[in-house]
């Protein structure tokens, strides 16, 4: 099994923060929400990166505290129904 080097982990963390900041900076005036989808289907201990998951939670808890209460876990089906139309749903969300 190949493990990420510590430098790779840091680069992944930097990319994650960059993408969140970029999404927030592109919000129109008066809008305060972004949708981030993290697909955990097939997630298990054999392929998990708990350090990165911990980082994601810490990012929201410490750096975006007013947004941390907006983080929720839901199924692909509920994401499809709540956020997409039949025309915009990504292919990998379809049954």
Folded structure, characterized:
It is built from 4 helices and no strands. The chain has one domain. It has 95 residues and is mainly α.
Globally, the shape reads globular
Report low-confidence residues grouped into runs of 5 or more: none
Strand content: under 5%
Class by helix and strand content? mainly alpha
Number of separate structural domains: 1
Mean pLDDT: 78
Q: What is the percent of helical residues?
A: 40-55%
Report the major sheet.
Answer: none
Report the span from N to C terminus: 31 Å
Radius of gyration equals 15 Å
Descriptive labels:
48% helix, globular, mainly alpha, 95 residues
In summary, what is this structure?
The chain has 4 helices and no strands. By secondary structure, the chain is an all-alpha fold. The model has no long low-confidence stretch (mean pLDDT 78).
Strands, helices and their partners?
Blueprint: H1 6-25, H2 50-63, H3 65-68, H4 76-83
Helix pairs in contact: 1-2
InterPro entries: CRAL-TRIO_dom, CRAL-TRIO_dom_sf
Domain CRAL-TRIO: 12-74
Organism: Papaver somniferum
């Amino acid at each position: 099994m190949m493990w990420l080097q510590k430098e790779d982990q840091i680069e992944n963390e930097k990319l994650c923060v960059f993408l969140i900041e970029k999404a927030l900076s592109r919000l129109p005036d008066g809008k305060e929400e972004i949708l981030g989808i993290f697909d955990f289907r097939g997630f298990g201990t054999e392929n998990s990166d708990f350090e990165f998951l911990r980082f994601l939670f810490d990012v929201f808890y410490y750096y975006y505290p007013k947004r941390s209460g907006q983080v929720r876990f839901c199924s692909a089906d509920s994401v499809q129904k709540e956020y997409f139309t039949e025309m915009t749903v990504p292919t990998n969300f379809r049954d």
